[in-house]
Write the structure tokens for this entry.
Amino acid sequence: MAVREGLLSLLEDGPRHGYQLKTVFEQATGGVWPLNVGQVYTTLDRLERDGLVSVGGAPPGSALAPGQKIYAITIAGKDELGSWWEAVPADEPPPRDELMLKVLMAIEHDRAHALRVVTRQRTVLLQLLQAKRRERSAVTDVDGSLAARLVTEALVVRAEADLRWLDTVEANLSAKGK
Amino acid sequence: MAVREGLLSLLEDGPRHGYQLKTVFEQATGGVWPLNVGQVYTTLDRLERDGLVSVGGAPPGSALAPGQKIYAITIAGKDELGSWWEAVPADEPPPRDELMLKVLMAIEHDRAHALRVVTRQRTVLLQLLQAKRRERSAVTDVDGSLAARLVTEALVVRAEADLRWLDTVEANLSAKGK
DNA sequence: CGACACATGTAACACGTTACATGATTTG
DNA sequence: CAAATCATGTAACGTGTTACATGTGTCG
């Protein structure tokens, strides 16, 4: 439920056709989230099926229209969007995060193994973080869209959080482990 | 690709049957990640299809066996697991995160709207964070498994990161926005 | 003309998830 | 005995994702 709501929210600005949505979506996400056009159409089909968007043929006052369709958001769609803006990702059950799962499974397997996994993850994550930091400082406010900068920033902050968590895990393993 | 590798890694400790895996999985994740039994079987089917586990009939020296099957990890399975332990979640393209997407879409829509969304998200996230913190301090080292504690800790750290990011977003919106 | 962007769509598959059906075994 | 737990499985559906087929319009 991400692409779905994403497209829906783009349609709130006005009717669009499929290809346009792909373009706008990629712009809005700073070019870091490529979106396969095919997925746009399948998602739009599902949105139509659910009554959240309506499809129109050729645009009213337009001369150019090969087989073009125009999608517009419906009342029901706007309602659903409204809920989406309000909603906060539920944390019960907690999101299945790959790093978390990996560490937990490693612990279940054997503490020594877990320590190796944690160390390894931390090393690579740290490298990634430093790369992202360089990327961040390289992109001055001028070039690079606001979106691109925010995404980079988010990744940096997330990576920092993961590193901090890995430290906690290691502390727990070392303390209780002996 | 989370349940899949999770089950595989549980099988590294020795052959198990489906129901057992459900139980162990839930224990290993501190009881916070419920796993529908049905999914265990479908996932095991897929693992078998891919040659990562092999299925045996009744356990060799066991008298009890109604229709029980025993699943064991194969060489190929161990190889894949090895890669999994080493692997670090790719960040290109960056993971499609709901919060990120929501904020980016809000920005594309209209900056004032984006500010409202950010504020709203921060408020609720902060409440969640505080609840988690209380939960964390309530669970002393005695009760609550290591796994459960680590999950709570992870959620706290993640929430803090998200809040920090939301602050950055707001700063950017306020600055450039006028 | 040829390449490229625009534009639409289908088919196939992946994983995750839930609901449901079925039966054996254990335990109060 | 009745209820809970153990145990296996199927059917159906949801989203995400890729690969492929098809055609138009534009620009060098």
